[in-house]
Specification:
Bound molecules: flavin-adenine dinucleotide
Strand content of chain B: 25-35%
Oligomer: heterodimer
CATH architecture of the largest domain in chain A: 3-Layer(bba) Sandwich
Strand order of the largest sheet of chain B: 10-11-12-9-3-13
Number of strands of chain B: 19
Order of helices and strands of chain B: HEEHEEHEEEHEEHHEEEHEHHEHEEEEEH
Helix content of chain B: 10-25%
Shape of chain A: globular
Strand content of chain A: 15-25%
CATH superfamily of the largest domain in chain A: FAD/NAD(P)-binding domain
Largest sheet of chain A: 7 strands, mixed
Largest sheet of chain B: 6 strands, mixed
Structural class of chain A: alpha/beta
Shape of chain B: globular
CATH class of the largest domain in chain B: Alpha Beta
Radius of gyration of chain B: 22 Å
Chain lengths: ~525, ~425
Amino acid sequence: MKQSASKSYDAIIVGGGHNGLVCAAYLARAGRKVLVLEKRHLVGGAAVSEEIFPGFTYSVCSYVVSLLRPWIIRDLNLVEHGYQTIPLECSFSPYPDGRSLCRWSDADETRREISRFSTRDAEIYGTYGATMARLAAFAKPIIDSPAPQPASLDPRELLQLFRLGKNLRDLPADLLEQELGLMTMSAVDFLDAWFESDQLKAPMACSGIIGTFQGVRSPGTAYVLLHHYMGEIDGAFRSWGFARGGTGGVSNAIASSAQAFGAEIRTSAGVDRMLVANGKCGGVVLDSGEEIRARTVISGVDPRLTFMGLVGSEHLPDEFVKELTRFRYRGSSGKVNLALDRLPEFACRPGSSAHLRGDIAIAPSIDYLERAYDEAKYGKFSRRPYLNVVIPSLVDSTIAPPGKHVMSCFVQYAPYDLEGGAERWPEQREAFGDTVIDTLEEYIPDLREIILHRQVLTPWDLEQEFGLTEGNIFHGELSLEQLAFLRPVSGWAHYKTPINNLWMCASGTHPGGGIMGAPGALAAKAMLKSGAL
Amino acid sequence: MPVPSPFHPRTADLCTSLAWKSWAGIFAVEHFGTCHEREYYALRHTAAMIDVTPLYKIDLTGPDAAKLLARVTSRDITKLDVGRCTYLCWCDDDGMLLDDGTVTRLDDEHFRLTAAEPYFHWFESHARGVDVELSDTSARIASLAVQGPRSREVVAAALEPEFQSALRTLPFFGALAARVRGFDCVVTRTGYTGDLGYELWTANEFALELWDAVDLAGFAHGLLPAGLSALDVSRVEAGFILAGVDYTSARDAAIPAQKSSPYEVGLGWTVELDREDFIGRSGLAKSRSNPHRRATVGLVLDWNELERLFEAEGLPPELPSTAWRGGVPVYSASGQVGRATSGVWSPTLKQNLAIGMVGRSHAKVGTKLEMEVLVEYQRLRISATVSKRPFFDPPRKRFTPKNSPSSSHSSPSGELV
Ligand SMILES: Cc1cc2nc3c(=O)[nH]c(=O)nc-3n(C[C@H](O)[C@H](O)[C@H](O)COP(=O)(O)OP(=O)(O)OC[C@H]3O[C@@H](n4cnc5c(N)ncnc54)[C@H](O)[C@@H]3O)c2cc1C
């Protein structure tokens, strides 16, 4: 076995996803000697931009930003390192009957659009948004600080803690009722209490199911609606944005900041296993056989891969392993990226492109979404899936040649456990891609003619290529029982693990997935505070 | 009633918001759609075109044109090469600032000056005994700013083919006499956005053709028409001062204290003192050697403090999305030391910025001051750190490719740094 150059590191971070990089930057900023080891040939993980087809840069996985914490942007000088965002202007939904709805940042314009479906909904829509924003303001401190510590694990107390946790204690009575609904209801039930028109509710309900293996009528999905309102761009509560150069632009800025603080980053350096002996971790062994030692090792990959893949369950307490096994991944989504010869035209709104400058939801009705889920329950990808589509090249001139475009389609449902086994995904990949194009073609009749290149990612690909267990985009479902002090395992929600000198810093820890950076930053702070480093 | 600019038929069609204002008595669009944001992002990420016709223009021709400009303005214009522009200011007899603008040397004996305010007669009144003809071209020349990272490709594509390569290698503050669709059009690499950008100058009768040519060329590059709201956000990011907003012209000052020297507004670098006498020279020499009364500074306002002030009221922080103008007190520990006159939340830098004038001793970069803010109707203060201007200064602003590739798209991100 080769021994690496005599360097000694305070910390090795396994995985150069954005959280690993944030963690590295904070540790380096505090003067620690840090090495990031990334398996792929570039950093970013699920927040990555790659020129898959010459001239066209895809945000291969994640495609919009919103949750990246403003304090992280400031602490790490990310703007100086190239971080720039462009807000999404609207949310557009076409319907099979030739109608369409576009929700704009302008309240009056949105009201006019919605009133074509329901004047009642149009009138209340603004109040709904304001209520959610107020709720999000109460919940926001939760994602900016370590998970609260429960006094006991009695489920009733846990619920209490969620509801009346430190930050929610001051919740006004009118919001409390809404909050209770969010905690327990399905996205559809929650929205039913507000709105009547299916065309409005369907695209709104989708934010409750993204990345989960649940339907819009499954209880608990309402809570995730709130996440949609927690996004911040530019300090004030705002919606989502594109990162310039794709979401890899975020990771690259963080990597550049980490390096400026002195962190070292090695790509094409996959970790084969952690060096664990006597309940202690002392370093890692690379795929190449190279051994690197450090005072601490921090895992920037998901919990399953960390403990079952790199540590080995034999080193772990049984109870921990049991809970870890219960932690649900069940990837349910895929991605199709297209290079287009020109801007696509939706048949329902020809002659203009303004409505394409935001996100586009193919979610024509609640039943459509529920049917899509039904198919997935029985191991098939949806024949008519929910799609969330963006065309960032309309507003970012760095990612496609002039006049050409990239189109990113997030696809749900694509169950990891395909009928006949997940290994069948490769042979189903192109059929899955065809389904997505067929679905879109119902709204963009000439789509096939303008496709120059297509990249299809199934949950299997997300696992194989990006190390996302079962293809789960968030390192484990974002459902209530897998959040906060329960993420990933109760009692181990503060970035520490049962193995001494081994820590966690990625989306499988509090406050969870999304391009947020909070797990990485909070982990670094916890380590520095504990004196572990 | 304002009058239409030569681009009005096009801008009026596009201005669905009906958000017009008067700029120098000419109808100018504030924002074309319901808000300016889209236009701002086009400026910073693709390209935007802005009708800047309301700028005042004076054309000077004749053997002594350079001499006259050198006599009236802060710069020794005789040294300006043909095909170059320069930024400068002009002062009254006491060396107090009147206005600032650009001068382009179109030919050996042909210059064009731009100004924020009308100064034709001021220049003319100093043209005694020199062989120069002045012409107020303000109402005859249409100007269109094309700004943003893709503006080079857009402008190149709008020109007749034989001028395209010269355009691509046109340096910062360079000027090119070109042609668009058969008519003459001067292109200068100037602008008010602090970004890569150009301004196109042509006779009024070709304005619509010019607009259409740029619009067509820009389609593939995501070019959008932009109004003054977007322009104003970018100009604060660029740290540019605005006459009448960040300083009062000596001509408009009601009391002497309202006048400023170019040194006080940060235009000292445009003043070339060591040369033949020119208007305001002795006054300028005095203000240079005297400790200046004040200095214009960039201020970065503390975000955390602002957030806490709002939080104390149970509110999320709220800022106007457009640039603000006005007079907001700026303090040091000892009391008020100046005022902030323009400001904006910069969506690109993710910083809350202001431009202001403070006492000279408080102007060093890094100095901690305080600025007044209004939170729930209360006058409060937050920290404001003196910082360098421009706040936003991307390398692409000055960068010029050496050769002229037909398309610069091979390394998009590199070029757009
Ligand atoms: C298809 C898709 C769409 C998404 N869309 C959005 C979106 O639009 N907005 C949003 O906010 N979030 C989105 N997400 C979620 C978000 O991208 C992730 O939650 C987030 O990027 C995860 O970051 P991370 O740093 O925690 O982990 P990861 O990004 O998963 O990083 C882990 C890293 O570890 C590396 N690695 C794995 N194994 C090894 C090994 N053995 N040795 C060394 N390195 C290893 C991986 O290559 C990877 O770089 C999406 C995710 C996916 C997959």
